[in-house]
Amino acid sequence: MVEPGRASPEPDALACLIEIAAELRGVLADLGPRQAAAVAELAAAVRAAWAGGGTFWLCGNGGSAADAQHIAAELVGRFLRERPGRRAHALTVNSSVLTAVANDYGYDAVFARQVEALARPGDVLLVISTSGNSANCVRAVEAARRAGVAVHGFLGGDGGRLLGLVDDAFVAPSLATPRIQELHIMMGHLLCRLLEGGSGSAAERGDG
After folding, report:
1. DSSP at 144
2. CA 127, CA 64: separation in Å to the nearest integer?
3. How many domains does the chain have?
4. Which parts of the chain have pLDDT scores under 50?
5. Alpha-carbon distance 101 to 113, whole Å?
6. H-run or E-run covering 127
7. Do residues 137 and 57 touch, judged by C-beta distance below 8 A?
8. pLDDT score recorded for residue 4
9. Cα dihedral 19/65/155/38 (nearest 10)
10. CATH classification at residue 177
11. Which of 21, 126, 140, 179 has its CA 20 to 30 A from that of 153?
12. pTM
């Protein structure tokens, strides 16, 4: 029953919601031990980096940039549990650095230049790319290799160029960019949970 004064849902919106939910359920059904292992490997690498005083770096473009910042925020702040802040930094947040490097060296260098300047041996870099082919992420991986930094990926489709360049990767089992992005942030949340340790409920946070 529709509440008084409240419009009923638009049929087109409801149809889209049903379609999206069905697509997402299909993609979720394809997740299993292989994908969990990829995120567990990343968590182990990040823990090792932190134990040695290192930093977890993240990068991506567009929605993937937002995911990089989202994951870093959960780790510097908190996800589900109270614990010390962690060393995590998205390479997408300094607009002056991004625009200076893009202007002087081209956009493909915006992450690689920061890795060169800031990352140290023993650190970990996560590259997030729905296609697996983002040129600036490829360049970032190459810079990370020169710097002695471990590299992992959150990718989509067939993994693209990045799949063969990273140490390990979660590859979302979909060709649709929205579904890939939804799985990437889901795996980001799994990563945060693994890094915090133990189990927990979202209700523990008490915030939005």
Report:
1. H
2. 9
3. 1
4. 1, 202-208
5. 7
6. strand 124-128
7. no
8. 62
9. -110
10. 3.40.50.10490
11. 21
12. 0.89
Domain-embedded: residue 148? yes
Rounded to whole angstroms, the Cα distance separating 164 from 133 reads 11
Q: Which residue has the tokens 């990437």?
A: 184
Q: Which two tokens stand for residue 50?
A: 């932190």
**Tokens 């990040």 — which residue?**
46
Q: N- to C-terminal Cα distance for the chain?
A: 29
The confidence score (pLDDT) of residue 203 equals 45
In angstroms, the CA 28 to CA 176 distance is 13
Whether residue 7 is contained in a domain is answered as: no
Give the C-alpha distances (Å, rounded to integers) separating 58 from 63, 70, 151, 154, 175: 13, 10, 10, 10, 23
Note the Cα 50 to chain centre separation in Å.
18
Nearest alpha carbon to residue 130 among 87, 181, 79: 181
Which token pair is 194?
């693994």
205 within some domain = no
Q: Where are the alpha helices (DSSP H) in the chain?
A: 11-28, 33-51, 63-76, 95-105, 112-118, 135-147, 160-163, 177-196
Distances (CA, A) of 158 to 133, 175, 176: 10, 8, 12
What's the confidence (pLDDT) of residue 9? 56
Give yes or no for a contact between 98 and 110, defined as CB atoms under 8 angstroms apart. yes
Residue 20: inside a domain, yes or no? Answer: no
- Provide the domain limits for residue 105: 33-199
Handedness of CA 98, 104, 56, 180 (dihedral sign): positive
Q: CA torsion, points 73, 76, 102, 167, in degrees to nearest 10?
A: -100
Q: Say how far apart CA 56 and CA 76 lie, in whole Å.
A: 10
